[in-house]
Write a structure and sequence with these properties.
This protein is mainly β and 661 residues long. The chain has three helices and 46 strands.
């Protein structure tokens, strides 16, 4: 099956309006282009690597890895790149000066029938430095391409080093040439953040379900480090960033004020945020002991304090589903890239997370680690950790302001058996490294957040060897006297040269680590990559309801009695059923108490009827569903249906055109 992988138009179940980009050849989508060159065979990238803007069967304007994303116009009569505006120097040559696109990425900011806006961010010149803070935040360029169906383009280039904006008007000609009209460069000042929060980490405004690019500001306390080390250009945190209008991403949910936030102040480490300001993350891939590293400590995205190697992109954004991709290279505190020795093309380790986010607040995380050491874990030489539960605190907030001291952590297995553990007197962080014993085969963890009805849940595939291990701290009682939880303030926000720094006060933002989910077999693995899944969220669901959610994902009801599709099944890595269906479709979900139906999603590949859809449950039409229309990796139409439905019995579903139902 193909994976849905483009931003797209959208409409709700009761909306009879025509969705965007339905009856035109003009649209954009994420794809992985392949020209057959040898270097492409070992690229450590996913299906979202490149962007194609389609005009017709023979005309595409695309941004791809072979040119460090400098865009190219391709027709049946000729091919040309747009003008390269800056002298380049990197780890490659020619158009591939950024050979592995570590400092270059592209994003679809928006698209409609009227235009497509593409953002290309890159560093024209870069070196590999051993000093942890060079070249600081400088040396970046942001380019925006507003592409119209009449084949005209407004190209706006923001040259941050020289504080200027360069404007070009382009015309894409049928013979493959590009006509360019230039305007005089103008002075440019980076726009101020759209959202500030003086007393908390910035989570952005509340709204209905959906993703938005934004610029989140920070005006709280932060540490610039000792004067004999790197010092930022300004003591105002916001003024040090060479970014234009939309570096960050937030995702809001329906019916509550919780959200997902991808903010550069956290190195884009994805975090769930409660309505009262507690931040929660399931961490990332982390490794230790690499010979490339300048000093002791780990390689992780926390060390990329200036997000040189980290970026976030909205892949889908519809009422039925949001998909966000976060990609980074684990680095040491000196920006040392790891696992480069004997790696094809010098790739080194890379991590890519794809989050399938649904309106009910559930988030399926697909974590792919690319490395030559994918078969190792933890204390093994150069091993990788893949999970650590963290609560993140704003300046002025102590851990016990965000975490309940009693019944701090509840562990649950698939039978619904549960045990709670207290954080009082270091009851979690002072336990040592032995796994929590009960309940047996627990694969669900809930953290009890303070002063909110929304608690975290994390569900992981069990696989028979999963252990949930407390985050232990040697000498906890001496290091953190009279404290209940560990606290570190080297991250977030602070720009200090430190892999770890324990804190005894709340002067700066900090984080608390509570436990690891470890030793679980990967969902998928080969010689150079491994993929792991988890399902997470903030929810006021009971433990019984969270257990039911876990069963609906890991023991999903079987699809039966299918008509209208020849290729179908359940994709655990999306938490969705998929069908190749272009017209009408009917099927049965064989629900039971062991295999419950719980807010299912359906991915209809090749579905032609993007509007006027009717959904029936056991023969009765319902308006309680959400629909989204996107383009897949080949530009193929895909419709996504999200259906709020809970059932422990067999359920018949029909999806069809209004005139045929």
């Amino acid at each position: 099956m193909g994976t849905a992988c483009s931003t797209g138009s959208d409409s709700k179940g009761d909306d009879k309006s025509t969705s965007e980009n339905t009856e035109t050849d003009f649209y954009a989508y994420y794809s992985r282009m392949d020209s057959g060159e040898s270097w492409e065979a070992h690229q450590m990238v996913s299906e979202f690597a490149d962007i194609v803007v389609n005009f017709s069967d023979t005309e595409q304007f695309y941004f791809w890895r072979a040119s460090s994303y400098l865009p190219r116009w391709h027709t049946g009569q000729g091919v040309n790149y747009v003008e390269q505006l800056f002298e380049t120097r990197g780890d490659g040559v020619g158009l591939r000066w950024d050979k592995l696109n570590r400092h270059s990425h592209v994003r679809i900011i928006r698209q409609s029938q009227n235009d497509v806006v593409i953002h290309w961010r890159y560093a024209p010149k870069f070196d590999v430095h051993k000093d942890p803070m060079l070249p600081g935040w400088t040396g970046w360029v942001d380019e925006y391409y507003t592409v119209k169906p009449d084949r005209t383009i407004l190209r706006e280039t923001y040259d941050h080093d020289n504080e200027r904006k360069i404007t070009h008007n382009l015309t894409l000609n049928p013979n493959g040439t590009i006509t360019q009209v230039s305007a005089q460069p103008s002075a440019y000042v980076s726009p101020v953040p759209e959202f500030y929060s003086a007393d908390a980490l910035p989570a952005g405004p509340d709204s209905g379900f959906g993703a938005q690019y934004t610029k989140l500001g920070y005006v709280g306390a932060w540490d610039t480090g000792p004067e004999d080390q790197y010092q930022p250009r300004s003591n105002l945190w916001n003024d040090n960033w060479q970014v234009h209008a939309d570096p960050d991403v937030i995702v809001n949910f329906d019916g509550n004020d919780t959200k997902w936030v991808f903010w550069r102040g956290l190195g884009f480490v994805p975090s769930l945020v409660s309505e009262n300001g507690a931040w929660f993350s399931n961490e990332f891939n982390e490794s230790w002991g690499w010979p490339e590293m300048c000093e002791s400590g780990g390689a992780e995205p926390m060390n990329d304090k200036q997000v040189r190697y980290s970026h976030v992109r909205v892949i889908e954004n519809t009422p039925a589903r949001v998909v966000v991709q976060w990609r980074y290279h684990p680095t040491g505190i000196c920006y040392n890239l790891i696992d480069t020795e004997d790696s094809p093309d010098g790739w080194g380790a890379a991590s890519e997370f794809v989050f399938y986010i649904y309106p009910d607040g559930t988030v399926l995380s697909r974590n792919t680690l690319f490395s030559q050491q994918v078969n190792t874990y933890g204390d093994a030489p150069n091993g990788f950790e893949y999970h650590e539960a963290m609560i993140i605190h704003s300046a002025g907030k102590d851990p016990w302001d965000n975490i309940e001291i009693d019944n701090t952590l509840t562990l649950v297995n698939m039978n619904g058996q549960a045990e709670s553990y207290d954080g009082a007197n270091g009851g979690i962080n002072n336990r040592g490294s032995e796994a929590f014993e009960l309940p047996l085969q627990a694969n669900i963890a809930r953290i009890n957040l303070k002063d909110t009805e929304f608690d975290t849940f994390t569900i992981m595939e069990h696989g028979g060897s999963l252990e949930i291990i407390p985050y232990s701290e040697v000498g906890f009682e001496e290091e953190y006297p009279d404290h209940h939880f560990v606290r570190w303030d080297h991250w977030p926000v602070n720009q200090i040269r430190a892999f770890g720094r324990g804190a005894s006060d709340s002067l700066y933002p900090s984080h608390t680590s509570l436990f690891h989910m470890a030793f679980n077999p990967p969902f998928k693995q080969d010689d150079s990559s491994q993929t792991r899944l988890l399902l997470t969220g903030l929810s006021n669901m009971s433990t019984a309801q969270v257990t039911k959610l876990a069963k609906s994902w890991l023991q999903a009801p079987v699809v039966a009695n299918v008509t209208g599709s020849s290729d179908y099944g359940y994709d655990e890595a999306q938490r969705a059923y998929y069908f190749d269906a272009s017209d009408s479709l009917s099927f049965r979900l064989s629900g039971s108490s062991a295999n419950p139906v719980f807010n299912p999603a359906f991915v209809l590949e090749g579905w032609e009827n993007e509007s006027d859809i009717v959904v029936k449950i056991n023969g009765q039409a319902t308006d309680d569903f959400k629909r989204g229309n996107i383009r897949g990796a080949s530009g193929k139409k895909i419709t996504i249906i999200f259906l709020p439905l809970n059932s422990d019995s067999e359920t018949d579903i029909e999806i069809c055109k209004a005139k045929d139902c």
